């Protein structure tokens, strides 16, 4: 197959070399126009790339027109490269013009070698074919071997016939360094996506993986850096333009950024000529968060990270308050992943106030309860997100981001939704003999596999605020079901003991459907009880929780919320597992009676409810007093 492809390429080049240069140019334009018509994927890629570079300065109509011009110019440039491949000097001279040669000669006279920063602008093959313009200079180039050995050998032979020394990127860098130190002029491509080995630095204001090779070679050898570009300036005619030397008195990172800025200027000279069909701003897979990339991120000290074009990430968070709290560390780890993020939190409408209060994202979108996946997906299309990260395992959440048309959709596999995600995160294997992993760590593992840094959980919870009055909070309900609720009479007995022994006052927290529970606790109580069940918004609930010294609670969302806010918690567990869903703050005390059927994770107990009834009010009261004493929450 390699040999067949080689012969096809050879015949095609020979045919184009037979045609007159102008005819060849017209044929190339026609082929480019055909490609524009039949290759919508590449057409879309070119338009997206141009929107990065020109989005603020050109309308969609102008970008579409420039896209068409690019395809035609690209066809003409490729046809011209084939036509002049190995052509005679006289023919090449009649179709090219050299400008700015003094910049190259001045740099060459320093005797330290010159790195030519070359790019895929115009007929870039002219870099090798037109070296006869400067006979006093020894030219070389670094190339990357192509997989077809026949094509690779053929291209190398033709270039070497022009007197150009070739250095293979993987094995010839030491020789390239010697060549530069001896005063040679070495061409290095600087405009390709460099993958995981690149330096992430802005290109047209958006972070792009950039090869630092040109800067490394210049820094190591003391060579000058001179940019060169080939612009198409007419039918079968090109200008080879040498630009002023780039100052190299700086770090490799800064020099790479300077090369990028000059490349931007070159592209702006003739936008249709650059190789826009290359995905220059490719999003890495799987680690598109860049906290741990090999060469890191660099942004010129004279600039501001806030001016970067943002990578727009949508994070679909969990539907329950407790699970949403357990999402928070992962969201903050993702935030630390790279400096150019714009994070949108997508959550049920009932949790919007929570996400706004903790300020984990740049904006929060709420899903009304009446909306289905279709309406949600259509609504999200208007925002043009780059990435969607889905925390819940549900089929619906995967469908939402799929219908939104978001290019990268990330999440764990589950519930028949693998078709909707295109980056599946593997569950971390936990040995059966090991302690179960907390749900919070599961979300953090997802963030880690996207490239986020390690997130210290201890940094999540703020210091407790000193309170002058001894108010305690109590949360006797549990939205999941009665199996998670310690008996109400035992809550009341515990409250009576503590009121008598330490003189505390109580605030009862809960939903509207918990209002009767609050009334039962307050009715005839020998102390102060403020029943707030169903009377607070989520924002008001958070404010009220901050006013208590401690929260006594079942396994509820309010428990997680209090822990996140730095309020000490005494939590009663029965049918559920604190190893999986316990509070993530450090100031918590878990009360649990282990029985053979616990945890069962049922909504209602089918047996005798021993996991809860075996825990007595006196034990709970002692735990609350010890917690108050150890946390020193009173001013």
How do you describe this structure in short?
The chain has 635 residues and is α/β, with parallel strands linked by helices. The model has no long low-confidence stretch (mean pLDDT 90).
Please tell me about this protein's structure.
There is one protein chain. The protein has four domains: 2-89, no CATH class; 94-273, no CATH class; 310-459, Glycogen Phosphorylase B (Rossmann fold), CATH 3.40.50; 471-631, Glycogen Phosphorylase B (Rossmann fold), CATH 3.40.50.2000. The protein contains 23 helices and 21 strands. α18 (515-522) links the parallel β17 (505-508) and β18 (529-531). The longest helix has 24 residues, at 60-83.
Topology:
Elements lengths: L1 H17 L2 H18 L1 H15 L5 H24 L5 H6 L1 E4 L1 H8 L5 E5 L7 H4 L9 E5 L5 H13 L3 E4 L4 H9 L3 E5 L9 E5 L2 E5 L2 H9 L2 E11 L2 E6 L9 H18 L41 E6 L4 H15 L5 E8 L3 H7 L4 E5 L5 H8 L6 E4 L4 H9 L4 E5 L10 E3 L13 H11 L21 E5 L12 H15 L2 E4 L6 H8 L6 E3 L6 H8 L4 E5 L2 H8 L4 E5 L4 H4 L6 E5 L17 H4 L3 H15 L4
Parallel strand pairs: 1-9, 2-5, 2-8, 3-4, 3-5, 10-11, 10-13, 11-12, 13-14, 14-15, 16-17, 16-19, 17-18, 19-20, 20-21
Antiparallel strand pairs: 6-7, 8-9
């Amino acid at each position: 197959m390699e040999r067949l492809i080689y012969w096809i390429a050879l015949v095609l080049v020979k045919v184009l070399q037979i045609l007159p240069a102008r005819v060849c140019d017209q044929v190339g334009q026609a082929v480019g126009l055909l490609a524009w018509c039949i290759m919508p994927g590449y057409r879309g890629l070119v338009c997206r790339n141009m929107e990065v570079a020109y989005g603020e300065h050109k309308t969609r109509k102008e970008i579409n027109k420039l896209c068409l011009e690019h395809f035609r110019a690209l066809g003409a440039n490729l046809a011209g490269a084939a036509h002049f491949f190995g052509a005679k000097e006289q023919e090449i001279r009649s179709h090219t013009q050299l400008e700015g040669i003094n910049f190259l000669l001045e740099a060459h006279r320093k005797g330290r070698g010159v790195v030519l920063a070359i790019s895929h602008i115009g007929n870039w093959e002219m870099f090798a074919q037109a070296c006869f313009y400067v006979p006093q200079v020894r030219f070389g180039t670094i190339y990357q071997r192509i997989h077809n050995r026949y094509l690779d050998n053929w291209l190398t032979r033709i270039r070497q016939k022009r007197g150009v020394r070739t250095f293979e990127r993987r094995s010839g860098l030491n020789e390239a360094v010697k060549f530069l130190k001896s005063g040679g002029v070495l061409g290095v491509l600087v405009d390709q996506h460099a993958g995981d080995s690149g330096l992430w630095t802005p290109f047209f204001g958006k972070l792009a993986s950039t090869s630092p090779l040109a800067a490394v070679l210049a820094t190591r050898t003391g060579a000058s850096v001179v940019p060169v570009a080939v612009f198409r300036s007419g039918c079968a005619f090109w200008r080879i333009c040498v630009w002023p030397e780039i100052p190299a008195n700086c770090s490799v990172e800064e020099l790479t950024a300077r090369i990028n800025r000059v490349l931007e200027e070159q592209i702006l000279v003739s936008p249709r000529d650059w190789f826009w069909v290359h995905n220059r701003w490719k999003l890495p897979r799987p680690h598109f968060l860049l906290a741990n990339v090999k060469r890191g991120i660099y942004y010129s000290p004279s600039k501001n990270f806030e001016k970067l074009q943002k990578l727009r990430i949508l994070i679909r968070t969990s539907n329950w308050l407790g699970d949403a709290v357990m999402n928070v560390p992962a969201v903050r780890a993702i935030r630390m992943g790279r400096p150019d993020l714009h994070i949108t939190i997508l959550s049920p409408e009932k949790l919007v106030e929570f996400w706004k209060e903790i300020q984990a994202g740049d904006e929060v979108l709420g899903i009304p309860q009446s909306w289905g996946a279709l309406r949600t997906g259509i609504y999200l299309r208007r925002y043009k997100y780059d990435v969607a990260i889905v925390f819940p395992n549900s089929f619906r959440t995967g469908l939402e981001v799929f219908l939104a048309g978001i290019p990268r959709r990330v999440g764990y596999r589950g519930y028949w939704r693998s078709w909707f995600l295109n980056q599946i995160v593997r569950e971390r294997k936990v040995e059966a003999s090991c302690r179960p992993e907390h749900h919070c760590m599961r979300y953090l593992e997802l963030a880690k596999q996207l490239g986020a840094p390690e997130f210290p959980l201890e940094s999540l919870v703020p210091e407790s605020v000193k309170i002058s009055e001894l108010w305690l909070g109590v949360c006797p309900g549990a939205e999941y079901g009665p199996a998670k609720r310690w008996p109400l009479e035992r809550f009341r007995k515990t409250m009576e003991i503590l009121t008598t022994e330490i003189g505390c006052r109580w605030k009862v927290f809960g939903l509207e459907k918990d209002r009767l529970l609050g009334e039962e606790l307050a009715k005839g109580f020998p102390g102060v009880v403020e029943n707030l069940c169903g009377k607070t918004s989520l924002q008001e609930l958070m404010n009220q929780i901050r006013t208590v010294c401690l929260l006594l609670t079942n396994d509820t969302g309010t428990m997680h919320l209090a822990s996140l806010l730095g309020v000490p918690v005494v939590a009663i567990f029965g049918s559920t597992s604190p190893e999986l869903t316990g509070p993530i703050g450090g100031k918590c005390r878990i009360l649990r009676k282990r029985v053979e059927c616990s945890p069962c994770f049922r909504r209602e107990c089918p047996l005798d409810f021993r996991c809860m009834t075996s825990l007595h009010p006196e034990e709970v009261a002692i735990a609350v007093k010890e917690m108050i004493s150890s946390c020193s929450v009173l001013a």
